[in-house]
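note to self: the first set is below, dont mix up w the second
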Amino acid sequence: MPRGYLSQSQVALWQRNPEQYKAIYFDGRDELRPSNSGMTYGKVVADALEHGIQTGDLLTDAATLLLPKYDVMDVEFRAELKTPSGWIEILAKPDSLDSVTKDFYEYKTGKTAWTQTKAQMHLQMHWYATAIYLKYGVIPKAKLIWIETEMSIFEGGDHVRPTGRVEEFEVTFQLRNILNTMALITKVAKEIEVAWASHVTNPELLKF
């Protein structure tokens, strides 16, 4: 692996656009990472929840204060998946984790509505459940919590702000879901490994 590990965002990007993945992770072109106002706002909320701080926006601070939380906030851990070709290290960072049961919450912001089906099928939820299973030997319970946002004119500019609508979706996992996610990780890791082994960062240098 170019970073020595796999994350859910890496797998999602590889499935969506392998060439963009290569540019970012093989060639180090971080400027190609996707970014927009919604993602920036999501990062603000995540930082506020992780560190227990206020953002300065009353609506955002009220929304984050009322969210259900476990005792471990936004802490990264790694797990290992054994495959016929060797070990794969995977990274996970649930927004909120119960240190005892290993149940977790994942918070999502945005104006596009989440549904029960969308939450249940979301790769990130299954990724974290798989990492927890590999690390701790338990299949957790989880909820995806959606904080609806909208663009509003505030202090002379457009800003992303919560509407006050918050919805919770319970996501359940069975062993077959964990095994399917392991199979996906193994498949994508192999594809990345093959591409990485033959990748030339500066192909124009081969002309000389």
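second set (the one i keep forgetting abt)
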Amino acid sequence: MYMQDTTNLRPPAMVADIASAADTIGFTISSDTLTGSLLRTLAASKPSGMLLELGTGVGMGTAWLLDGMDAASKLITVDRNAETTAVAKRFFGHDTRVTFQFADGAAFIQSSREQGHSFDLIFADMIPGKFSLLDETLSLLKKGGLYIVDDLLPSSSWPQEHQEHQSNVDHLIASLESRPDLRITKLNWSVGLIIAAKV
């Protein structure tokens, strides 16, 4: 019998409703189930952790992160799209572990650096923190912290502006590979991910 990576994933209770809400507003780039499962596991590895999600969307990644976090952990999730953030807040606004930042990602990263903030886990799912301001974002990561990026494999569901960023994907991978302060694993799985640990 072979292991099946898509069975018995036990998604958070809200996932189906979030997917329905995403369909209603035409949002097509939520984190997929396998990515979510990985995020949950990695979040669980950071008890009492401070976590950062760059790119809230409708809250799909948020759901999986919260499902892995313990009661003492905190999550800041950042997005500048009012419509999608409102959906995420509808599902998770009651959860005191999460703070929603309605802000430009680049401005948030710069402000966090100026204020000396640091994080145990960063899930970068928007252009700032991933295809731009990479060094600045990684400076926010604590030693032993995890940096996760997804959507590194081409997908027909990407909006046109994302389709044009294949050269940025290649540059991101090369940049992460070249850093002596990271240990990385590239996963040609799900939507294409990299997990990096800071040393």
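remember for set 2: The chain has a mean pLDDT of 93.
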